[in-house]
Design brief:
- The protein is α/β, with parallel strands linked by helices and 185 residues long.
- Helix content is 29%, strand content 29%.
- The chain has helices at 2-8, 43-48, 50-54, 92-102, 120-136, 146-152; strands spanning 13-18, 33-39, 60-64, 77-83, 103-114, 156-164, 176-183.
- A seven-stranded mixed beta sheet has the order 3-2-1-4-5-7-6, with helices on both faces.
- It is globular.
- Bound molecules: S-adenosylmethionine.
- S-adenosylmethionine (SAM) binds at residues 18-19, 21, 24, 39-42, 45, 66-68, 83-85, 88-89.
């Protein structure tokens, strides 16, 4: 939750959250958030989020099923939130192109993602385990470099903190996380 709080800090106005899941970020939305449009393909995850949505001070509405093809007009959001979603979306580059399109100029993407570690021994394990991870964890990848994908999509990374989550060394392939904001110029 501490990482989610840090990621959501500074969110304001109309927000789009891609890969809403069971709504674990709802309690971290700052008061400056006016509304959240949620994109989530899983009916089960959406149902699981019901209690969190009902208890939210911020109105949350489902706005679509696929972050790779958003229904929203260009420049229609002040901010986009993605937590542990760019690892799972089949085409992360397509989703980030959509994020860029729907953000207003000056709007920001806030993200919390696990991904490719800088240490060669860890990244070698990530490459070895990537296929199996996809099979057992709903299409999740271990080897995506979220900040690099964001820059490649034409968003400028403004802040970036990277670290391993606390835990045993054997968990490192799953535990290298980035907390970042990126601005759309
Ligand atoms: C690991 S979960 C993270 C959920 C939530 N963001 C969180 O932090 O707890 C990945 C989420 O991405 C969603 N997802 C998968 N494909 C997607 C797509 N094409 N567009 C949007 N979300 C997608 C999954 O249904 C799932 O809810």
């Amino acid at each position: 939750m501490a990482l989610r709080d840090r990621t959501c800090r500074g969110l304001e106005g109309r927000v789009l959250e891609i890969g809403f899941g069971s709504g674990l970020n709802v309690g971290a939305y700052p008061p400056a958030v006016v509304s959240v449009d949620a994109v989530e393909p899983s009916a089960r995850a959406w149902a699981l989020s019901e209690r969190r949505r009902a208890g939210s001070a911020v109105p949350v509405a489902r706005a679509g099923l696929d972050g790779q093809a958003l229904a929203a007009p260009d420049a229609s959001y002040d901010a986009v939130l993605s937590t542990f979603t760019l690892c799972t979306i089949p085409d992360a580059a397509a989703a980030l192109a959509e994020v860029r399109r729907v953000l207003r100029p000056g709007g920001r993407l806030h993200l919390l993602e696990h991904g490719l570690a800088p240490d060669r021994r860890v990244s070698a394990w990530q490459r070895r385990c990537d296929g199996l991870q996809g099979l057992v964890a709903g299409g999740c990848h271990l080897t995506r470099d979220a900040p690099a994908l964001v820059e490649a999509a034409g968003l400028r990374v403004q802040s970036l903190e990277q670290s391993y989550l606390p835990g045993p060394s054997v968990a490192k392939p799953w535990g290298f996380v980035s907390v970042a904001t990126a601005v759309r110029s």
